[in-house]
Known about the structure:
The protein has helices at 22-38, 53-57, 64-67, 88-98, 139-156, 171-187, 194-202, 204-207, 213-220, 231-247, 292-295, 310-320, 341-352, 366-376, 386-391, 429-436; strands at 43-44, 50-52, 72-74, 80-83, 104-113, 125-134, 161-167, 252-253, 264-273, 282-289, 303-309, 332-336, 357-359, 380-384, 393-398, 422-425. The two termini are 55 Å apart. It is α+β, with helices and mostly antiparallel strands. α13 links the parallel β12 and β13. The site of histidyl-adenosine monophosphate has 26 residues, from β6, β10, β11 and α12.
Amino acid sequence: MTDAPAEQFQTLTGMRDVLFPESSRRRALVQLFAEVVESAGYRELSPPLLEHLGVFLRVGETTDVVTKEMYDFTDKDGSRIALRPELTAGVVRAFVQHRPLLPWKVWYSGSNFRHERPQKGRYRSFEQVGVEVLGVDDPDLDVEVIALAWRFYTALGLRQVRLLLNTLGEHSDRERYTDAVRAHFEARAADLSEAGRTTLARNPLRVLDSKRPEDRAVVADAPVVADCLSPGAAAHFERVSAGLDALGIPYTEDPRLVRGLDYYRRTTFEFVADALDAAQNAVGGGGRYDRLAEDMGGPPTDGIGFALGVDRILLACDAEGVFPGPDAACDVFVVDLVGGESARDLTHGLRDAGMSADRRFGGGSMKAQMKAADRSGARIAVLVGPDELEAGEVTLRPLRGHAPTAGSAPADAGGGGGREQRRVRRDDLIDELRNEL
Ligand code: HAM
């Protein structure tokens, strides 16, 4: 066997390892999301990362997500499968498979895969948190769903997120609108960019989303969906707008908001972070969809949901200087200068008592162990030297500017550099630490 070239031992393009402390910040973000949505009755669903390709084709056979970016391949048994590019299709597949009681309110978190051109905020493996509700037609649900995303951004501390709102109308409205948009762009095809013309041939609505300057000019006077709305769709949209007004959630109506997936109808929305570069500032999006359940062999069922991009949200948090993530430091660090048994037994006992405790393996000098204690971020070091061992005691040394307890006196073990510390009976250690921490 020859050695593989070194580059094979790097992450794939567009994929990243999430190291500490970013990893614990992500976990805290998902935990906060769970709290927000569970308080509204949503329950967690974890669909698999891999599904039959057909599940994802329902996302839209004219979308880039399906035609260009899917990680699809042939499984060992010859079936065509794919890594999920998003979670909505898998949730609807699960709904059709399990037929839960309606309404079905679920939330999820996890990785998705799209073979995109990577840049800051755009990755080939990225994480989303989201919700989906199956089986409710009421526009007040649209308000609830949007309000939950808003509540979550607010709970993170983000202040520069804007909500863009649109409706694509009923299925037939959307078809009429697509025809109107196609006619408009075909008449002005010469003014469009070449990429714009290619998009026009495949999916006219997506041209509305083009960021190219030539296309923007033609998009500016394209028809708006409001001209094609049926009375039912218009009333639905009015009720959603009124609900957001009533809850004090600010939004901008954006008649050109079409979203990148094909399954939407009626309410669509997107959240943009003004603290991020305009090219990758969408930190979440969603809307109503129909036909997904039917397409997968289920009964006609209304659906609505959103997915929020965790990677971009954290970039927005950095840009706004909010949500630094939890303090992951441990409570206690045990410094053992007498052979290691005390470190072994005390860390175990402290963890049994519900505290977080760490130590340095392989012993080492006082200096080396104190350095490790500082690096751990622990608030208190528990020192065991020959004197303490003999007396059945330990020394508590506050770290990280932790205020010493009244009556504490400088002790001898290890030269505390003038910092206040005190000796306590080893049998009392847990109670003493409980008072101190
Ligand atoms: P989406 O707009 O494709 O919608 O993705 C939602 C969010 O995921 C985006 O706003 C963005 O924050 C993040 N995102 C998407 N692609 C990437 C990427 N390559 N790198 C980093 N972040 C990314 C959906 O996925 C729908 N399933 C939303 C939905 C749920 N609609 C109804 N229910």
